[in-house]
Amino acid sequence: MARPMGSVRLKKANPCTLLLGVVLCIFIIFFLVSPSTTTTTARLAVDTAQHHLSPPTSPYRKPRPRSGAELRPPPVAHYNLNNVTVTPDPVGNEEHILILSPMARFYQEYWDNLLQLSYPHELITLGFILPKTKEGNAATTALQKQIHKTQKHGPEKDRFKSIIILRQDFESAVPSQDESERHKMANQKERRAVMAKARNSLLFTTLGPSTSWVLWLDSDVVETPPTLIQDLASFDKPVIAPNCFQRFYNEEKKEMDERPYDFNNWQDSDTAQQLAAQMGPDEILLEGYAEMATYRALMAYMVTGPADNMIIPLDGVGGAALLVKADVHRDGAMFPPFPFYHLIETEGFAKMAKRLGWQPYGLPNYKVYHYNE
């Protein structure tokens, strides 16, 4: 029988081919609509903070929803500060330490000393604040270089939990950071007011809900015992200061020697209190200057021998090295940039801590060492 002109005979489709086509279509549709950020999300969960109120870690990144998708609100974080322990055994209880250092110049010895601290570095957060000056810019560059070297390429044991760098948005009080210029009596009120502002900015920005202790460590303190944190914490005091000295070459003895450096750790005197009573509201008492003899008992001159458990109450403290229970700062003790009972900065902090019921202490025979310019 002849076929009509122009007709076409269709082949019957193979069931296997149809099944394969259906599977392929389902795969394509799934690929197009499924999230493609699974790997990225997993990585960011480690690299970034979980939400914008997280304590200092890596920066919080606001999620970007797909077009048309509903943006869910950020999670609510709950912190129970009753679970934050502050004990004489901070290592055994895995207590988090915040080391804060105002910095105008970078000293390699300071960084090397940080690295040799035996406290577990994964429990240590570092915080720095630097001025926006020529010297401050150079210090920031040098600091960032060492941070990159340690955090990215250094041994795991040397890497710190996190590091925060701040740049202060107010002018320095003195044009030079040379030791002779910094310690002129005429510069002290303005200089220490700026230092107090820097310390407060650094503290209020970095203190997190998991912090147990705050170690204030000046960036020109270049030598401490490796067990500094454990040693100071073992006394279980709210505020405790070691004795800051300085190594130098003694020309008379023709050998290396040491001398007191920080004179802000002291016990008050009747003379100092009488001077304060005669001062105007904006005047401050200063220590270590012949022009203002206070006759306070200075911890710098109370050394009796090698490091031991000798401990004394203090009325004023210095900031070269100072371990503070985080609760002292949470209670409101800060560094007054204004005359507070005629005291300012770290000495004003000691007065404020005492007014809040936290007694500072000092260790005359436990020494740390300041850089010698």
From TrEMBL:
Query: Would you name any one GO CC term?
Result: mannan polymerase complex
Task: Kindly report the protein's main subcellular placement as a broad class.
Answer: Golgi
> GO annotations under biological process?
cell wall mannoprotein biosynthetic process; protein N-linked glycosylation
> What are the alphabetically sorted keywords of the record?
Golgi apparatus, Membrane, Signal-anchor, Transmembrane, Transmembrane helix
- InterPro entries on file: Mannan_Polymerase_Subunit (IPR052086), Nucleotide-diphossugar_trans (IPR029044)
Q: Does the keyword Lyase apply?
A: no
- The answer on whether this UniProt entry bears the keyword NADP reads no
UniProt topology in membrane: Single-pass type II membrane protein
Out of the domains of life, which is the source? Answer: Eukaryota
Molecular function terms in GO for this entry?
alpha-1,6-mannosyltransferase activity
Q: Name one Pfam family in it.
A: Anp1
**Location in or out of the cell:** Golgi apparatus membrane
List every stretch annotated Disordered: 50-74
Protein family (similarity comment): Belongs to the ANP1/MMN9/VAN1 family.
Which named protein is this?
Answer: Mannan polymerase complexes subunit-like protein
Organism of origin is Hapsidospora chrysogenum (strain ATCC 11550 / CBS 779.69 / DSM 880 / IAM 14645 / JCM 23072 / IMI 49137) (Acremonium chrysogenum)
